């Protein structure tokens, strides 16, 4: 393996120092380091963060390789500063067996750009009728620990309780897409003033909040781990705050787009802004930002959801919900919070790695730890051009927006996957 000497870098916002990477590990940290056999990376003005970890990525393979593959999604992740992503189960076939999750895991290893950790389905075929092979997926080579029917809510409370009880045996996590389906039938956007004016069927905030309230009670009763996907409302924040105060084992995520974009974007009828859960109000955004800063919401997760052209460039009612997120997430975090590097490291690397149990990820660069890290230029600003994204899809809501920050390099176990802002392979 090649040794790398990273000079003049600020580790999580600290004073400039040098990092020596050797044999996949951080060998030394300090001023004036030297190594004749090392490739020098001048990181003056750059910030080193632990490699980012995404708990909510849709890679589409197997089944929809026209929208994304494990390889193309991994490349997008590396360019976004990620060293590990958790791949959701709504593929075709669904990742509800040991065979499918192992296929995704092996594809990730072959790509070698990020660690791809599959998420297993909670129910067979995401149908919400009977539990999938949770134990077999946990015991597989992929070592699945998070299970989710994301895109569908586990609406049956008895089934949800059984799932929570089952995964408790191996300290697994049930990640819930919180949406009471009987309250969102035919919904097109957030239920509110804008939906009324546009004449579009609304997706009420209470449909999310009711499921979260039910599930934290179930998790509390069982004593198991619950994770709430893509929290989007102020009411959900209050439910989570109360649950955490009682000691419920619940964690939660928010997406970059729910921290920045409001339901007013639907006024354009541009389907790129159609997402599930929908974009909410400015008041919801303010509550989500505050909750993330204080830790009521634990992490930022991208919900990277690539779609083929025909699934997005059509009438609003027929468009598939979802947005790209991997290559822009850190920039959105910088836009929202500024250079609060410790907060960004905590919400985008350390905590998601702990939730997923990803050993070696989410650890600040220090002697003796795996060299999973990313180098960021905080002074850079870039215009988002969809054609330049690594994803096979182009459904970014940030097209032609100018965003802060640029990923200069990403290292996975000491080997660069990105250098000078470009994918190495």
List low-confidence stretches.
Answer: none
CATH superfamily of the largest domain: Metal-dependent hydrolases
Major sheet size, sense and barrel closure: 9 strands, mixed
| CATH domain class of the largest domain | Alpha Beta
- Distance from first to last alpha carbon: 16 Å
Shape: globular
- The CATH architecture classification of the largest domain is Alpha-Beta Barrel
* Helicity range: 25-40%
What's the average pLDDT? 98
Please compute the radius of gyration using only Cα atoms.
21 Å
Number of domains: 2
Strand content bin:
15-25%
Category from helices, strands and their pairing: alpha/beta
CATH topology (fold) name of the largest domain: TIM Barrel
Task: Please count the helical segments.
Answer: 12
Total strands: 19
Oligomer: single chain
What does this structure look like?
With 425 residues, the chain is α/β, with parallel strands linked by helices. It contains twelve helices and 19 strands. The protein folds into two domains: 3-48 and 367-423, Roll (Urease, subunit C, domain 1); 51-356, Alpha-Beta Barrel (TIM Barrel), CATH 3.20.20. The strands form four sheets. Strands 1, 2, 3, 4, 5, 16, 17, 18 and 19 form a nine-stranded mixed beta sheet that branches. A five-stranded parallel beta sheet has the order 9-10-13-14-15. It is globular.
